[in-house]
Amino acid sequence: MQELLQLIIGIIFLILGFFAGNLLRDKTKEEQKKGKIWFKILTAIGILGGIVGLVIRKDWVLFTFFFIAIVSSRSLIPENKKKLK
Prior knowledge:
Number of strands: 0
Helix content: over 70%
Strand content: under 5%
Number of helices: 4
Radius of gyration: 15 Å
Order of helices and strands: HHHH
Structural class: mainly alpha
Largest sheet: none
Oligomer: single chain
């Protein structure tokens, strides 16, 4: 039961990472142009660290690195300003 609760809390924080990444993207547009390579590096480190956390079965490592990957990857996605009619 405790493992299930930890998993649910981790998933909730990963979902919040999408919103945090979108907020970061909206508030730091100028920095994203200069630091795009660093966001890519952070995304790669986050994914690799998450996989390592999965292999070593440490939930806190898995969720921490996947959160970093989600937030930094959302910053790489350009905001679509065209609205569909």
